[in-house]
Amino acid sequence: MDCRIEEIAAKALKKMGDDRYRLSLVVAKRAEQLADGATPLVDIDKNKLKFADIALFEIAEDKITLEGLGETDR
Length: 74
Hints:
Elements: H1 5-15, H2 20-35, H3 51-60
């Protein structure tokens, strides 16, 4: 994954329908899961990136969605 984080964030935002609030919810929830020991769903060294960055990569690659994280309020 050589892309710049800004490019990944833009791609992830598109996957969330350009809804920044929705994106932030998914990133926060997934980053918490990663911090609690969840395995990244993308081939990436989780010791070299922040959990939020890993979550962005996962969203950009269609590995996770808000619905997939169990959120029901949206």
